[in-house]
Structures are given as structure tokens and as C-alpha cells.
Design a protein that fits this description.
nine-stranded mixed beta sheet; three-stranded antiparallel beta sheet; alpha+beta; Double-stranded beta-helix; binds succinic acid; 6 helices; globular
Length: 278
Amino acid sequence: MRIERAGNVGAFVQDVDLRLVGAADLNALRSALAEHEVLFFRNQHLEPDDHLQLAQEWGSININRFFRAVEGYPAIAEVLKEPHQQGNIGGGWHTDHSYDVEPALGSMLYAREVPEHGGDTLFASVSSAYASLSEGLQRMLLRLRAVHSSRHVFGEAGGYSGQTEGRIGNAEAAVQDAVHPVVIKHPASGRPCLYVNPAFTLRFEGWSADESAPLLRYLYDVVGRPEHTYRLQWQPGTLAFWDNRSTWHWAVNDYQGSRRLMHRITLDGEPLSGLGSS
Ligand code: SIN
């Protein structure tokens, strides 16, 4: 197995068949994910059972409560956009599940059908974004916590509420809010990571949404700078495995009239601690 840095975030893992990973490979992949924050694998041949087995070897699976599942596989979410659909899933910077008390570790997204052009996914490193801030701002952020929610996205009146088409539902499950440190200590790498995101963070704890907005907007601008990002062009058989605690992602919606079908398995995470915690 060879690991080659992709760019400012992420790495390509070469010479591996994900149907055949053993214990030594898994250890190497765990270290690589902590180091590079998102891993890319080309030319894989995963049936849903193979995908499931890979995820189960890594950890326990977090069953998505908002996306439609692949038929016969409740643990595999279908990330699908049909040619007639306009909106896509994940079309803006976000990290998954920050509204959960124990946010998901990350997701393994496998490309089954991709458009001839477009449909890339952008990734951003929130550890490198944090490291780029001034020492004064870093110190101030260490004291803050932020409130996250899914209500305004997946709830009854949320942004996805009009986009039924069998893809997203279960608005009544969008009731859980969570509070996390704004700077977390990454559970595997120990790196400080900026843990706010434009999709699910509402405000800083103890601050109003209006008071929070300017600083949040500044932080979002920093994370989205090219020097913290990488753009993945998918091919059928590409798998991306991202860590939600150290990255954001954005599924670019620039392929109207084409079909894009991905299978996603999300893994359970753990409660997040601030930098001062052991
Ligand atoms: C997602 O946000 O999980 C979807 C990412 C993608 O389809 O590229």
C-alpha cells in the first residue's frame, strides 16, 4: 500500500483492494486518515456487501436518519441525483452530523455512477485553517463553544423540506441540538480543529445568532481558502473516506441533466473534547 499526498488536504492510497484489507492494512489506514484527514481510493470494485464489510471492520455504523437507504441495505445511504432533479445533497460546505451529541467519525462515499463532467467534491482541512489563524484569535476561540442543529436543514421548515423525491424525509427526527467546543482536540491526531460549519452551526454558546454571525463568517471564509482545500474528481469505483472532525466537504452541483449515484456509509464517532481536555 502506498500513500501519496493529494494536495493541501487528503491523500491517495494506491495498491490496495478494499475487499481484501487485513489488520495491518487497517492500522496503516487509521494512521493515514489521522494524518491526511481524507483518503481517496481509485479503481475499487465494491458491491454493497464489500462496502459494508469494510465499514464494519473499521468501526460501528451510524445509520442515517434523513437519507434514503440502498434497497436491502439500511446501513448504506443513497446519495443520488437524477437528471431531472435540480438540488443535490451536500451542495455547500458542511461537516456531517455536527448536530449530534456524539458526531459521526466520518463517511465512506463510493462512486457508482458519475456524470461525464462535473459532480466533483471539495474537501477542506479545518486543522490547517485553525493553524493559519493568529495566536490571539486562536486563544480566544479556545474559550468558546458553539450550538449546532439540524432543524433548519432537515426539519419541517428546513432547507431540504421541499426536496422530497424519495431522497430525504423523516423531518421529525431533526430535533436534536448539540453544543461542542469551537476548537476540538482531534480524537486520533490530537490536532486542534476548528469545529464549526456553515450548514449546522447556529451560534456561539451564550451569544446571539446576530452577534455570532460576523466571526463565524470570517472563520468560514478562512476554511474555504484554496490553501486548505482539495477538489476530488470522481470516477466510477472511487471511494473517499473523510474524517468529519478534521474536514468539511461540498458536493458541487454543476451537472444538471446527468445522473450521479453514490453509496455512503457513515461511522459512529465519540463525544468531542476541547483542546484543554485530556
Ligand atoms: C455528502 O455531503 O455526504 C455528499 C457528498 C457528495 O455527494 O460528494
